[in-house]
Structure formats: C-alpha cells, structure tokens
Amino acid sequence: MAQQEDVFKKIVSHCKEYGFVFPSSDIYDGLGAVYDYGQNGVELKNNIKQYWWQSMVLLHENIVGIDAAIFMHPTTWKASGHVDAFNDPLIDNRDSKKRYRADVLIEEQMAKYEDKIQKEIEKAQKRFGDSFDEAKFRATNERVLENQKKYDDLHHRFQEVMNAEGGIDLDGLKQIILDEGIVCPISGTRNWTDVRQFNLMFKTEMGSTADGASTIYLRPETAQGIFVNYLNVQKTGRMKLPFGIAQIGKAFRNEIVARQFIFRMREFEQMEMQFFIQPGTELDWFQKWKAYRMKWHQNLGFGAENYRFHDHDKLAHYANAATDIEFRMPFGFKEVEGIHSRTNFDLSQHAKYSGKKIEYFDPDTNESYTPYVIETSIGVDRMFLSIMCHSYEEQLLPDGQTRTVLHLPAALAPVKLAVFPLTKKDGMPEKAQEIINDLRFHFNCKYEEKDQIGKRYRRMDAIGCPYCVTVDQQTLEDNTVTLRDRDTMEQKRVAISDLRGIIEDKVSITSLLKKLL
Ligand code: GAP
User: Fold this and answer.
1) Residue 395, H or E segment
2) CA atoms of 350 and 175, how far apart (whole Å)
3) Which of 142, 143, 141, 155 is nearest to 111 (CA)?
4) Structurally, what CATH architecture does the domain formed by 404-514 represent?
5) Could you tell which of 268, 269, 380 is best to mutate to test the pocket of ligand 1, judged by most ligand atoms within 8 Å of the CB?
6) Contact, 138 vs 149, CB < 8 A?
7) Lower CB density within 10 Å: C or N end of the chain?
8) Is residue 325 within 8 Å of residue 52, measured between CB atoms?
9) Across the chain, what does the average pLDDT equal?
C-alpha cells in the first residue's frame, strides 16, 4: 500500500513537471482542491471529451448535445432537491480546528477493521502456502472473527443512522464516533463538536444589492441543464422517444474532504447524458447503458480486470437502479462514472415547480406521459486521473537505465508526433519543419531541436508522445526518416511520404470509435 502511495505521489509530481496539471493560482501557493490543466493536460482532456462526445453524439442518431449555462434559475435547485438535501454531515475537532465528514470518519474506521482482517489473511497465506483455505481461515481464526464482528456491528449501526426516518440521525453519527474512540488525525484528541449538515452548493448573488439581488448557485451537476431543456430540444429537434441529450460542462461542489489530487475537486467537469424513455422500459435500458459504458472504458485497452461495477443496494428515493463504474486507482477501486435509472423524478419536479406541462405525446400509443430517464454521468477529471495512473511507468531498460514513460492510448495523447533534426545544420531543421508543416493539419506535431536525441526521446516518452521522427543526413539524400515507437522503442526507416498513412489512423479518435461499433 505504501508503495502504491509513493507511485501516486510520483504521478502527481509528474503531472506538474510535464505541464499536465498545476495547482490553481500556484504563485499564491494554490487553492484547495482546485487545479489548472497545463499545455499537455488540456490536450489530453480535450481528447477524452472528444472520445466521449463523439461516442454519444456521432455514433447515436438519437442523441444530441447541448451546452447550458452554469447559472440557472434558483428554483431549479429547489425542484431538484439540492437546496434541501445536497448535504454532507460535518464534525469539527475543537483542538485542531479541523473539519471532517462524519460519515467518512466512520467509513475509515470500518476500513481499518477490514485492513486488519486482510493483514491476518496475508500472513496466514505466506505461512501455509498452497494449502491455505481462506474461507476456513475466515470462519475459524479468532482475530479475524473478532475484527469481522466489530466491522459488522459498526456497519449495521452506520446504516441505521444514515438511513434513519426523516434523514440522517446526526446525534447517532456523533455517538458512533465517540463509542469507536475515533480521534482527530491532527490533534489526536476526541474533543468533537456536534455533527451539522452542510450544503455543498456554492452560492453567489446576481444583480446589484440595491436592485434586490437574488441568491443563485453554481451548478453542482450539469444534469439539471438538460432536464430544464427537455421540452426545447424535444420540440425543436422533433425528437422521438427513446432519445438522449448529452452535455459536457463544469460543476462545482464545496467538498469538505477534498483529497487525492484531482479525484475530488471543488470545480470539476462532468460529461452527462440523460436518455429519455417510455416508462416500464427503464430496467432494460439501464442494462444496455451499463454494458455500453463499460465497453467505452475497456475500449482504451487498460484490461478488464481494472474495472468493476458497484451496484447500489441503497437507492435514492427517486431511483430504481444505480451502479458505479469503478477503476483500480493506486489508492483502490474508485468511482469514475455513475449510471442511474432516475424514473420521472426530475421532469415531474420541474413540471410541478414551473407550472409547465413537461410530457411526451407518444404517436405510437396516442398517450401523453412524463418520460423516464437513464443517466450516465462521468467526471472528466477522474477519467483523466485514471488514464494517467494506468499509463505511468518507470521502466527499467536492458542497458540498466530507467525511463519514465506514459503509455497513453495514442488517440488520447497530447502530442502525436515529435520531429527532431539530428543536428541544427545542413538544412536538417528546415526539412523537419517541412514535415511538420505538412502533417500539422492531420494531427498534433511538435518540433524539438534542443539536447541530444536520447534526451529528446525521454522528454517525449514522459508526455506520452507515441511517435518520434528523426531527420538525419540520409534524409537529405533519399527523403526517408527514422520513425521510433514510444512503447517498443523500435526504430525503422520510412519514407516521409508514408508518415501520414502510418500514423494518422492509429492516433485518431475515429480508430477508437470504430472499435465501439
Ligand atoms: N448527475 C449525477 C451526478 O452528478 P455524481 O455521482 O454525484 O452524480 C457523477 O457525479 C460523476 O462526477 C462521478 O462519478 C465523478 O466522476 C464526478 N464527480 C463528482 N464529484 C466530483 C468531485 N468533487 N471532483 C471530481 N469529480 C467529481
């Protein structure tokens, strides 16, 4: 685990060193859980968004996109339930003055019991080797049984408190923290305040105060921009059910436990698609979207074993099915995407609060009804993080040297081709520029002439550039160059006129999209 934490730290510093992700307002020492994307980060991020957008809007005739404003009428958030219920239970430690999410403190305590069990199992596995029977060990070992009971009791109590009649039982949460003897990691004391509910939405004011300003919110999800535009899109696009509306945009949450780099941010980006369907067909569509979204992830070639579904046992009152797609990050399997069957909750709420009829007239059945919705919702930044984590490698080479390489899927890589003149003379720089001038219309190219070729290769490996071309003396004679592959490091001699044909297909988003069909 410690080793994985080290790897994660290295990935975070690599992101900064190579222009992928910087802390926001870095010269002022950053702003908590807010990040900026640098020159390479923005290219990778744009490619992720393009892969998602095109897989939705280009590949599905019945899905269209929109781009709604971040500011929305404040009643939107009353109707959606966010004003009343988008809360985290918080607790403060009086000695350290640090604030925590009470539910997270308890979840971490449960994880400690699980860790203890896991350690016993690993120890026994080493001792007994091939003859080790884990099920029997779990059922008989005293220390495992003791920790399992502590875990089960705590889990049961936690579920009761979180799902209490009328909302989370805040006193009950505090009592668990006291009974479990949970201490503040900074002060080491149990001097806790009461637990309070804290709304995660950022507020601001619209209009001048003299005019009577109104409180508005920065949207905590992009989904509501889609729901409030359902009628506009359905009517102007003459859409027939089933159909979907896709959107990519910023969302804001005043997260209290903001950790793990860009995993949990206060300003982040979502790619959401709401698929409107006939009531009664939702569980079928839910399964279809579950399968399609998993295929989209696995299409990147990171290995099926690194993904899993986490189906929700406890559903929000308006949902009748929900699952997360989790990816194996260095800090464990974590949610990257949520897929939810949201019934007709959102459209019905907006109909109620706006007084507008929000329905669909079905020409096949001659009936009007409020459509049901399947939502797919993925965080761009979490997707970015999962790609960086999976691609990063410190590779030991046969000659004993090491190189840091990002094995990014070529279609997502920020730079597709780097072109180097071997030396800065004899017309080699001009020839290299000529190659770039020709290919830059087809994919992202970069010119590099500083340092020895070996160093230039390393710099390109570190940003995940899949191909490098070197212009040398022979190029000037026969118009061929060496083409080097990032992953195999193999070099071959190819004609300049063949470069586009060799590279373009491999680095295009289209190559990924074709594998989805
Ligand atoms: N409209 C549904 C919705 O917003 P969610 O599970 O709260 O559902 C969907 O968020 C996705 O947005 C998550 O799976 C995650 O990838 C991303 N996300 C949510 N909160 C985030 C945060 N604070 N920082 C980064 N990404 C976040």
Assistant:
1) strand 392-396
2) 38
3) 155
4) 3-Layer(aba) Sandwich (3.40)
5) 268
6) no
7) C
8) no
9) 95
Instruction: Give which of 274, 269, 299, 301 is closest to 285, Cα–Cα.
Output: 274
DSSP string, 133-174: -HHHHHHH-HHHHHHHHHHHHHHHHHHHHHT-TTS--HHHHH
- Cα 212 to Cα 202, 207, 215: the distances in Å are 19, 7, 10
Q: How far is the CA of 226 from the centre of ligand 1 (A)?
A: 16
Looking at domain 87-199, does it have CATH number 2.60.120.40? no
Q: Which amino acid is at 84?
A: D
Distance 371 CA to ligand 1 centre (A): 24
Q: Would you state the pLDDT for residue 57? A: 98
Instruction: Write out pLDDT tens, residues 117-151.
Output: 999 999 999 999 989 999 999 999 999 999 999 99
pLDDT of residue 289: 98
What's the CA-to-centroid distance between 199 and ligand 1, angstroms?
16
Q: Please compute the mean of the pLDDT values over residues 330-337 and round it to a whole number.
A: 94
Which residue type, as a one-letter code, is found at position 207? G
Whether the upstream peptide bond of residue 330 has omega within 30° of 0, thus cis, is no
Q: What is the CATH number of domain 39-75+201-396?
A: 3.30.930.10
Written as six digits, the tokens of 300 are 């990147």
Residue ranges of the domains in the chain? 39-75+201-396, 87-199, 404-514
- Give me the count of residues in the chain: 517
Amino acid sitting at position 208: S
Residue with tokens 């295929």: 295
The DSSP string of 7-20 is HHHHHHHHHHHTTS
Cα angle vertex 204, ends 200, 208, to 5°?
165
Closest alpha carbon to 380 in 218, 256, 222: 222
